Amino acid sequence: MLLAVAVLVQLGLFSYTTASGLAGTSDSRLYLYAAQTLREAGHLLHPDGSPYRYWPPLYPVLLAAADSLAGVRLLHGSALVGSLLLWSWLGRQLLPWRRALLLPLLLALGTPGLLVGKFVWAECVFMLLVAAYVSALLQWLRSARGEWGVLATVVGVLLPLQRTLGLFLLAGVGLALVVGTWRHLAVRGRWLVLLHLLLCGLGGVLWQTYALLVVAAPSRYHPPRGWAQLLSSAADYGFVLLRWGLPLPAAARVGLPNALWAAVLLGLFAALWPRRRPWRQVGALAAPATPDAEPANTAFRATHGLSFSTQLVREVLWAASVTLVSLVAALTVFAQSAAGVHDAERYASVLLGPVVVLVLAAWPTRAPRWLGVGLLGLWLAGSAVRAVHVARDLHRLPPLAPASFPRPVLHRQPVGAEEE
Asked: Span of the secretion signal (predicted)?
């Protein structure tokens, strides 16, 4: 019942936000032009006639299939609902059932989905792919069945072909899988994990090699801007992540020093670390070490109330989130993109599901029940108020004209990457 309500809430907010039309930035202009040239000439091109290279190719291909801004709107709405459904399923696997019930509503009221859904950006589909990847990975770790491993690998290959940030996420996933499972795996399991990670990152690495070396595109990077920029970016992400749970006004970002917001970011990730509990590792990916080890192709057995796969996937979510934020914040030292609060919310939008899951997983169980219920109620109420406020602001943005798909002429917007 709550899942159906959450889907209706998300669809309602998304429909209202985009009822006036989708908006765009300079990124959108390049996406739309590349999609148009793919339909007309079979090539992804930039407006200057050069090969498309600045971002991965999957999103323009999807835009070409959508064929119109109405189709893009349908694509974004479907991706957001699909992401919500998958994270809701993951919540039932990774969280106690009472907290899992609230996850869909918290995600439906999340403002990152509204922001990226309004603009012709690649994040909506990226969010869906990440949710699908984590779901397939969990099923593979539980069952060690080959079809789930193949599915996780296929979706993992698509991640960096949709967004370069997919490589950052996969780096965090790889770190968590190797550190969290290596000593528990049989030789076959180790090779499978390494092969999975290698194949997932291969497509993204090949695309980046093509863009940098084959096309020989001019570098979009500049000399480093110093540690002050890194501190400022860390502060942006600390503010954005905290605002997902607390009703903070926008003025709060400039009201406190960067060092304090950066400390908030570190404190949040420290508090969200999924603390280990003892388990007994069994299954096809693990070396049977106990007399009651299950036969091959079975799930990791739950021990002490927490299964091996559940704990491991929580660690994967944490490591992927930390890695993405760390690398994107570091990237702002060398590039113009991803700097500022608006860009931080855009780039971090894919972390809404993982962060909310980690918050609910770390929720203190020994606190008085009335306190927990009250805090969750305030969280939901604050999220609802902010979602309505953000939806109204996004609804008022000047939309792209329907004819802008073939020859986009964009309004300048105060969000997203800066105009070139």
From this structure: 1-19
Amino acid sitting at position 368: P
Range of the structural domain that residue 341 is part of: 16-216+224-274+302-400
Q: What is the pLDDT of residues 133-148, one digit of tens each?
A: 999 999 998 887 889 9
Does some domain include residue 25?
Answer: yes
The residue count for the chain: 420
User: Torsion over CA of 394, 395, 401 and 406, rounded to 10 degrees?
Assistant: 50
Contact 35, 60 (CB under 8 A): yes
**Residues 6+ away with beta carbon under 8 Å from 273:** 318, 362
Would you say residue 27 lies in a domain? Answer: yes
Tell me how far CA of residue 252 lies from CA of 11, 112, 406, 413, in angstroms: 30, 18, 41, 22
φ/ψ of 110, rounded to 5, equals: -70, 135
Q: How far apart are CA 13 and CA 159, in angstroms?
A: 26
Q: How many domains does the chain have?
A: 1
22-35 pLDDT, tens per residue?
999 988 999 999 99
Q: What is the mean pLDDT of the chain?
A: 85
| 249 SS3 class | coil
Q: Note whether residue 3 is domain-resident.
A: no
Higher pLDDT, 142 or 162: 162
DSSP 166: H
**Looking at 108-122, 204-218, 330-344, 402-416, which range is the least confident one?**
402-416
Token pair, residue 257, equals 């020093």
Is it the case that residue 345 has pLDDT exceeding 90? Answer: yes
The residues near 40 (Cβ < 8 Å, ≥ 6 apart) are none
From 320, 344, 313, select the one nearest 331 (Cα to Cα). 344
Residue 262 lies in a domain: yes
